[in-house]
Amino acid sequence: MKISNDWKQFEVLNAGNGEKIENWNGFIVRRPDPQAIWPLKGSVPKIDAFYHRSNKGGGYWELKKNIDTTIKYKDLTFKISPTNFKHMGLFPEQAYNWDFMMDKIQKSNRPIKVLNLFAYTGGATMACAQAGAEEVVHVDASKGMVTWAKENMKLCGLEDKKIRFIVDDCLKFVKREQRRGHFYDAIIMDPPSYGRGSKGEVWKFEDSINELVKACTHILSDDPLFFQINSYTTGISATAVSNILKYHIKNDGYVEADEIGLAIKESGFVLPCGIYARWEKK
Description:
alpha/beta; Immunoglobulin-like
């Protein structure tokens, strides 16, 4: 498992009993986490925001303080705020993957064009732009998330970088890019377990991922740098996703896959936070 451990303004304080307690730049947040199936060990600090899960699905926030802040990771700055679906607008464990992307782009010594699909609030988008990508195309079906990503671009001071923000269904966008003859040196995707596109298109990870990866291979440049897939879908292993990349990508390179996680301060345990699989150029 790969651990994202370079945060200065974020940490998982404790986890267990199906919940995690986090410190987001001084704000203490308690929310559900299905991976934290062990008993909660140790103390529980005073909570500023508590997400209560509903028996009927979903849930609601109980806010002791209004949380609307920012958080820094190295030279990047992101807006943090509770959302209706228990998230905070950022997945800190993905910093491990941001570091990889930034390193690959910086060491490539050539213009790199990046496509970020299911791009959410733009963590990977900002990392690639900060690293010097020639262009980053940011695609998400949610207009609200794309607006949030534009705020993050301003917070990171990246307005002078070439970032294109697109509200669209990811598969439809990729197929249009193929027809247009547009190619990318790096492709990133963070597809949900289930979702709907901007016009109601249904996405289900296990039914849709093969078609999307295959379509993306048609817009890879002749000299691609990397192809990254992140997943939080329960029951899908890193090995399964790596097999998809091995099947579809014929370029000379190798595939790596693993879990990613975050250290838990109180117990010393590691909180599993999804998987990744990536192809990268040798």
